[in-house]
Structure formats: C-alpha cells, structure tokens
Amino acid sequence: MSAEAADPAAVPRRRSRPRIDLRRLGRVALLGPVSRDRLPDAIGHVAEAHRAHHPDADLGILHRAYVLAESSHRGQMRKSGEPYITHPLAVTLILAELGAETTTLTASLLHDTVEDTEVTLDQVREQFGEEVCYLVDGVTKLEKVDYGAAAEPETFRKMLVATGNDVRVMSIKLADRLHNMRTLTVMRPEKQARIAKVTRDVLIPLAERLGVQALKTELEDLVFAILDPEEYEDTRALITAVTGGSDPLSPIADSVRATLREAGIGAEVLIRPRHFVSVHRVRRKRGELRPTDFGRLLVLVGEDADCYAVLGELHTCFTPVISEFKDFIAAPKFNLYQSLHTAVVGPEGAVAEVLIRTHRMHKVAEAGVVALGNPYAHDATAPAHDGTTAQQTTEPSDERADPTRPGWLSRLLDWQESATDPDTFWTTLRADLAQDREITVFRTDGRTLGLPAGASCVDAAYAQHGERAHACIGARVNGRLATLSTVLSDGDTVQLLLAQDTASGPSPEWLDHARTPAARIAITGWLSAHPDDPGPEAGGADGGDARTEPAAEGPHSTAPARTRSGGRAANVVVDGPQSPARLAGCCTPVPPDEVVGFVVRGGAVTVHRQECPAVARMQEIGRAPVAARWRDEDGWSDTAACRVTLVAESFGRPRLLADLTEAIATADAAIVSATVEPPSEQRVRHTYTLQLPDAAGLPALMRAMREVAGVYDVSRAQHPAATG
Fold first, then answer.
1. Catalytic residue among 115, 509, 638, 649
2. pTM of the full predicted structure?
3. Which residues does residue 272 pair with via DSSP β-bridges, in sequence order?
4. Active-site position among 116, 402, 575, 694
5. 115 is catalytic
C-alpha cells in the first residue's frame, strides 16, 4: 500500500512496478462475483498478501480466526448493506498488505467480535492466546450505557494505554478507521463530519507519529473530501487535468537513471504522485503550481551509504536547490522516518523534488511500526502482558526492536494519568497531538529528552523531574544561564537548577511557557492546591513560598501556628479558629515586621506585611483581616531563621554581581535564587531571595548591600499576589 491519491479511479497509479490496489482487491475479495447471501473464501486473498511479506507464516491460525469471525458475525449487516464480515476482512487485508505479522492479522479478524457478538475475551484467550486477546481487548470500545458522553474519550484513553504496552493495538485501530472512512458515505452528513473531525484531530496525528504514512495519507484525503469538499474538488480537478498528458517528471527521471547507471550505482527510480492533501498544501504554500509539483522522484537503493552516493551524483550532475535539502538519515524523525530530501533542476529548467532511501527505509516509511512486527520478538527481557517477563530466543536484529514507547507516547501516557476528567483528557489529547514536530535535547548525564518543537525549559524540567520541577529556579542551556521561559532547540544541552528548598512552587506565568500537557497539568494542579501562593516569579522569581505545619493543639481561640519558611521554623500567632498559617511569598514578612493575616481557600491563613499591596487589595474586595503577631515567649524567638526577598537597584558596572553576592555571603545569608533583569538606561535591577539564619540580621544585610559600589537602593520586595 502506498501513500498516493485516495481516488485511484480518477488518478491512475504511475509506478514502474504493478502494486495491489487494496480498495479494488478488497471489493473483489469480499464480495466477488457471487451474490451477497454467500461469501467467497476471502481469507485466501489475505493469505496471499501475508505470504508476500512472510513466506513461512503459519496460516492455520488465520483460517481459525476467520471461521470464528464469520460465524459470530453471521446475520449482521453493515449500513451499506454488505455482510458485516466484509469489514474485519478488509481491515485485515489492509494490514496484510502493509506487512503485519500473523498475530496482528489474527486479532484484526476478531477485533469486533467481543464488541458486537456473543464471543468473550476468555474464548479468544483460550483459542488464540494471550497476545491476541490483549490486542482485541485494546481496540474494543467501552459501552455508552456505562460511560455516557465520556465513552469516546475514555475508549481512546484505554486504547492509548494498551498501545503503550503493545503498539499493534493502534495499528489495528488505524486500519479499522481507514476502512470505516472509505465507506462513510452511507452515514448522515452530520455524522460523517463528526467522525472525520475525530479522525483529523486524533487518528491522523497518531498515524503520523507511528510512521504509518500509507494509512495517514489516505485518511487525510478522505477527511479532506468530507470537511472541505469544495477545495477537494478543485484539487481533484487539477490532478485530473495533468494525468492525461505526458508526465513532466519522466524526462528528469530518465536523466537521473542514466546518471546513476553511469556512476555504477544500482538504484530504482520511481515517480511518486502526490496525494490530494499534499497537492493542496503545495498549492497554498506556492500559490501557483509547477507542472512537476504533482509528484516526486523516489530513488531506492540497497545500503545507507548508497543514499549519500546518489545525493553526491545528483548534486554534481544537476543544479541542486540547496534550501530543499534535508537529511533524515543522520537525524531520523521521531516516527522512525529516514530519507534524504533534495530538489534538482532538470535538463529543461524544471525543478523536481527527490527522495532517496533504502528499500528497508521505504518499507518503514510506508508502514511505520507495522513493518517492525512483534515489538517483543527481539527483546529477551520484554514484559509480557500479564506482567511477567517474556523469554525470547530470537537473535536481535539491526532494526529497532521495541517501538512501543517512543518519547511522545511515554509523555502522553504520563500526563493522561493526571487528566482524570474525560473532557480535560480529550481536549488535552487533541492539543498534544497538534504538535507535529519533535526535538531532542540532551541532559548533562548524556541521556536525552524528547519534547515537542517550541518546548521551553519549563517543559524540560517537568519531563525530567516530574513534580520535583515545582522547585526549579533556572537552567543552563548549552552551558549558559537561561530563564525557564527559554525555548529549546533540537540538540541543546539542558541542565535544570532546582532549589534545595522543596517548599518552592511554580508561578502562574509558567503556564505561558509550558507546551507539554504534563507540565501544564502539574502546574495547574499545584496552583489549584495553593490558591493564595504567588509562586516564584510573583514572589521574587525564586519559587519561594511558605509552607505550613499543623497549628499547636489546644482549645484556645488564639492558636499559635508554626510556619515554615525555607524549611526552618518561624513563629507567628493568628487570632481566630485553629487553622494552619503561612507567610506570604509576595512580601516575605520577618520579625519584627507589622503583620496581618487573611483567610484563603482551604481555611489557611496567609500572613502579609502591613504595607504589602495585597493587603489593600484584599480589603477592597471585602476580605476580613485576621490579627497576627510574632510570638516571643515560651522559648519561641522573634529572631528565628527566615526567608526574605530583597531588590537591589544599581548602576551597571563590571563585577557588580560578584560584589553583591560576596556581601550577601559575608552576612551569612544563603541565596535561594537570584534574578538579574536586562540593563535599562545603565541601571540594573537584582532580585534575591535569601535564607537568613537570624531575622535580626536583616537590617545589617541591607546596609552591607547598599555599601556595594554602584548600588543606590536596597528594599524589601513587594510583588503582586493573588487574592485567593
């Protein structure tokens, strides 16, 4: 099966080798010349396609699966009027042509039996084994009667989780959707549009990520015809108009063949027509289509080195279009795709795009993970579906043995666990799949992180550290200090800097820089759990906030609450019902500041300095203040350890940062985090969040900082804070 136009009747295939037309073969195989009340032995066509890829395959299990499927679906009809068995047969034929192994074909024959007939999973397991049972269960839909409106998103969640263990689950689902899309015209227009939109938003991106281009391109054309019929017809008319005459790519193809033959390079040169959506995209990109834009040259060779030999000959004997060159062999795409892309100017000035790859690369480019077969066949320690270890004796091959957990799928499986709400999962899934490119960044330990293009250091932090990334205060990108908002590029080296104080939390501004669902869900969850905490940037760019410990027990109305700031005890007393209290991160109060508290969501009391802007704001919206004071009795000291945020205003000069940090260190204060804003009119603003062993030392520290040459003011930070 090839990634060509979805309307083979209108666009003849232009290949040097005849290929099976799956759609025509499917109709002949499934319906044949006989009447609809009697089915031909269509499994023979599946067996023929299967043996073409796997000559030694045992076909007995396919015959048994066909017998069970045909007998269980007997009497059921599709909306098109065809016997229902035609559907699982067509799905199996699609996968057989792509090169799927026997277990996948067996499961595809049975994929609707548990959902639509009296056959049970136990029967499937007993007759065909655990693997086939797992695949069938993975593609079986959840009942609407049990899940209601959440049935569709929860079904996809179930399939994705199953795909995380065995990628063949999604292979069957994609082939199933392709056949349903081919026969969708019998549905009502509104249902066609709904199914087409889900296919566009979820199934096509999944096909792209799994590298199954043969399925992806036809699905794109079928969706295009339903959702944008006018543009589809215009594109169809353009393609039809150019198929009647001579192909403008033929002379260039002949020249390429002659060039490679003279160079002694054995290669097959084919003309690949673009599918409808591809032509439409080129037309939108360029405005006016060139005669050669309706197809591309495909050069197939035997070895990887031959690909570069072909490239060298083409660039030597033809004028290359350098801007069109891409090397996906040295740097494969995240969906396993490998190929060299270039464009050359032909003998008469026509420009032809050229794809250069080996036969093996071509198979993987067309069929993706389907071409790799059983993901556990070459892995002696792969986990079986029952949680045990599968013992394999097959020698490892040079192909990727376990494609079931690429980076994007691992990320998806991680964040879906946090998206418990079906609507959140469904919306986030579509948004995640809309990110159509992936980059690889390197950690300092040499390991890699796969991230969507446009990801920032925030995304890298959550991808590497999970919820520990709440304490991230900065990063080094390629050895240089960088803000968390820095957008990463493919190949960057990233070192994430975490605060030693695990009480730190993210800022709402982090959501502006987070591209991955895992990061967004984790940040949103933390902010929801800490509604009155401004986070690191709102509170001094450090992630610093105060954490609470349970208030002292006792029946009195005035309950001394012990709060933690930076992990060391500071003592504050709030009047009112016994409830946890914490120091606000926006103004970082320390003894002997005048303080006042406010009850926030969850019943906690947040304590602010009296002059904090948040105090006036909360009083304006009707929040009642709660009396608060520092406690200096019973052994509690008003000079306990504390955290404070200071802002230093200075004139720019060399070594200013070094001199300021030296003054801070001399005062025995620890820097939790620091931010230096870009100079403005020769003035520089430094923000430090500091851990002081003794609150009484704060005035001396501020004086020492003011005495640094160039510093003209040092003040306590008063950042905006959420009102909860």
1. 115
2. 0.61
3. 296
4. 116
5. yes
